[in-house]
Amino acid sequence: MANPWTGEVSLVINGNPRVMKLTLGALAELEQALSVGSLVDLVQRFENGGFSAADILALIGAGLRGSGNPMSPDELALAQIDGGPMAAARVAAELLARAFMTPDAS
Prior knowledge:
Radius of gyration: 13 Å
Strand order of the largest sheet: 1-2
Number of domains: 1
Number of helices: 5
Distance between the termini: 20 Å
Order of helices and strands: EEHHHHH
Strand content: 5-15%
Number of strands: 2
Largest sheet: 2 strands, antiparallel
Helix content: 40-55%
């Protein structure tokens, strides 16, 4: 079960609930992997609807690694995600938001 107070988000991948969290290291990895000038740029992509499937996969992958439950990029690309691409996008955005706010701030 994900703990929103610690920035955790859960997603069912291949039939298994997985907890994700963006640690500082995961956030630094995202900046580099997605070639964004800053995390604010990435947040703005999600706020403006300008994010890509690669952004979603990168966020989920970083969140899985941040929680100690890594999946390889190839595994993640082939994974079945409950709720499909829309659920993956929603969870990726929530993961990013939780990295910067407390659950009651929404």
